[in-house]
Amino acid sequence: MTQLTQIQMDFRTAMAHLPAAVSIITTDGPHGRLGITVSAVCSVTDSPPTVLVCVNKNSAAHDVFKNNGKVGINVLAGEQEELARHFSGATQVPMDQRFTWDIWEKDTDVPVLADAHVKCIGTIEAITEQGSHSVLFIRLDRVEVNNDNNGLVYFNRAFHPIGPPVAV
Prior knowledge:
168 residues; alpha+beta; three-stranded antiparallel sheet; 19% helix; globular
């Protein structure tokens, strides 16, 4: 591993102070079923509904997403921090076991969490490489928001549940 430059270290610290929604990105298909925790999901356009997701090119998941082509985006609810930890690799639970839990919707092309704050399913339309990551542009075929739960953000290298806006 190469040593980080000062600007790279400063960049990582700065990005740790940028609150971001926590999502589990999933796929299933001929190249395998898997999911990873990410905080790099961003809206691109609503015509057609498209988001981008950044995935490290050195990740074992990278080629599985790329080759399957179909993606689930599960924006986590505040009480789903433990799932974020499982899918980030912070626990020792094997990937195949994670998909046996009774938390997934039935009869979907890709795994979608039943109680996610936001659920999306889409197809990778384009991939752009930038440095160590690939930017996956995903055209969404399904979007569903659960207004009955709160969100989960990653800020300052920790998970934080967030609630509804405070009325002024």
